Amino acid sequence: MKRRLRRWLVAGVLGFLLVGLLANRWVINSTDAYLYTDLALLPANEVGVVLGTSSYARDGSGNQEFEGRIRAAADLYKNGKLRHLIVSGANPDRTYNEPRQMRRALIELGVPGNAITMDFAGFRTLDSVVRAQSVWGLSRYTLITQKYHGYRALFLARKLGQTGAIAYAARIGRSEAFGNRHPLREVFARLKAVLDLFILDTQPRFTGDPEPLVIDAHADETDAVTDRPIGN
């Protein structure tokens, strides 16, 4: 009995690992052609979506992935690859606000304030991607994040019918690395993305009502925006 149970346990673990491996290969192989690391080769789009992360690492130092995404977004704007940026991240309360942090950092790098729209309900990558279409009506835009994360974001976008979505791989801080690594949490996150789309039918926490996205080629330097916590 114990031997049979052990065999079933081993078979279950191996089956799970195989499914995870296949899901990861599907996510990567189906999106690699739409993920760019060379700014010169990147097609221009009107709108870019910067996926949120904290500006601080767990040890309290600056988060290099945050810096890389902000610098990449600013570079794309300044080089005419984008005319408007949506910064999408979590804002559960007034003590933690990823979109506000991203907006401030972009303005410091010279991006005009009203060329930036804040999405306060980007709690997960799925939420950010769904809301890009449900709130702002986008099916063609540029995702901005590190390479390893870009595969999953693109997979979600394109499988949800956003067939014009592409991604630009941000560097890690000021280094030459694009985030080619595949951290264990991201391996599981890709499997979860497949399950969310095709098994669980997972929906964003806040779908949101449609809003107009004003794209002004002659944006002013700043504009007043009030924090709007979402999730309480």
3D structure, described in words:
The protein has helices at 2-29, 64-78, 98-108, 125-134, 147-159, 184-200, and strands at 35-36, 47-51, 84-88, 116-119, 142-146, 166-170. By secondary structure, it is of the alpha/beta class. It has one domain: Rossmann fold. 38% of the residues are buried.
Please give the largest β-sheet: 6 strands, parallel
The top level CATH class name = Alpha Beta
Which topology does CATH recognise? Answer: Rossmann fold
Sheet with most strands: strand arrangement: 1-6-5-2-3-4
User: What count of domains describes the coordinates?
Assistant: 1
Compressed to H and E, one letter per element, the order equals HEEHEHEHEHEH
Descriptive terms for the model:
232 residues; alpha/beta; Rossmann fold; six-stranded parallel beta sheet; 6 helices; 6 strands; globular
Summarize it.
The chain has 232 residues and is of the alpha/beta class.
